[in-house]
Amino acid sequence: MIEDLQTVIDDHMEKNKQAKLRRAGTTNINDDYLEFEEMMDYVEQMGEQCGDRCEVIDIGHSYENNVIKVIKVLESTDKQVAWIDGGIHAREWIAHAVTLYFIDRMVNGLDSDPLVQQMVATHDWYFLPCVNPDGYIYTHTTNRNWRKTRVPNDGSTCVGADANRNFDHNFGGIGTSDNPCSDTFHGDYAYSQPCTAALSSFVESNIPEGSRSTFVTIHSYSQLWMAPWGYTTDRPENYDDLMRVGNAAASALQDVHGTRYTVGSASEILYASSGTSRDWAYGVPGFEFVYTIELRDTGEHGFFLPPEQILPSQEETWAGIRAMYTAIMQ
Question: Among 63, 133, 163, 330, which residue's CB has the most CB atoms within a 10 Å radius?
Fold first, then answer.
């Protein structure tokens, strides 16, 4: 799809470098892609700004001992729960940036945005902007195109597993690989990667079963709003509701900048996959509305979306999340 990938990567990295120089040490989540420590500092900053209406939670650590940090907006035991994460695949930088924007809009809208006020009145919101810290750091320091974690594999010189094939739902099934050198290597066993173990354990231990309403995981690229399942073309029981809500989200998203998304189940509009967090969220902890969002674009830049597209991506996807919530509540 891209004739000279290195040129695209070089241009992408240079634009991000120049954007960082322009902000001169300040933090701006709209202009360039933050490095991991900047991202964690921003989450802490949002938590401090939010005060007792938020809680920043360290849910675990990666293989390289980088923190996996969640921010929870509002705490109540009698509300539904919405979970949004990004960055399970290291090279998908726009996913991290969009998830940070959601945090910003929620925290800054608590006193001024009527819909945000309604959102937190009915749901507790959990945001995890970087599921795979080690891989993300590696894309900044060594290999921009890295996808996996950085956990060594016994008997192989190839490092890492695909964290989005490492969940205990049809583990090792279709769309995965048992080759440690493959980008879709599922790992030696389910939850063998510290980041997937931390995420799944936290969700199942801390979110009551009856409150598990909405689970969204942010990826790039392809402009897709995808429901379960990935491992089969059989459709989930509430497929019609999932499509109703997904289409409402895609329509609102398109209204912002004209970006067109396709809505459907993952196996039908992308490809077959097993052991994903999406299928796990629907099939194990039992979230009702579950989606993978594949952000911009459709291949011109692929994983290396230029920094000038960060803010438009953030704005339109936030519109989609707001519409998703409204449609769920109808």
Answer: 163
Close Cβ partners of 227 (under 8 Å, ≥ 6 residues apart): 236, 239, 242, 243, 246, 263, 264, 265, 266, 290, 291
Active-site residue among 92, 288, 294, 316?
294
Q: How many CB atoms lie within 10 A of CB 174?
A: 14
- Using CA atoms, how far apart are residues 173 and 233, in angstroms rounded to an integer? 14
Active site residue 316: no
| pLDDT tens per residue across all 330 residues of the chain | 888 999 999 999 999 989 888 887 778 899 999 999 999 999 999 999 999 999 999 999 999 999 999 999 987 777 999 999 999 999 999 999 999 999 999 999 999 999 999 999 999 999 999 999 999 999 999 999 999 999 999 999 999 999 999 999 999 999 999 999 999 999 999 999 999 999 999 999 999 999 999 999 999 999 999 999 999 999 999 999 999 999 999 999 999 999 999 999 999 999 999 999 999 999 999 999 999 999 999 999 999 999 999 999 999 999 999 999 999 999
Token duo for residue 186: 């599922």
CATH architecture of 5-329: 3-Layer(aba) Sandwich (3.40)
Q: Which residues contact residue 111 at a Cβ distance below 8 angstroms, ignoring those fewer than 6 apart?
A: none
**pTM, whole model, 2 decimals?**
0.96
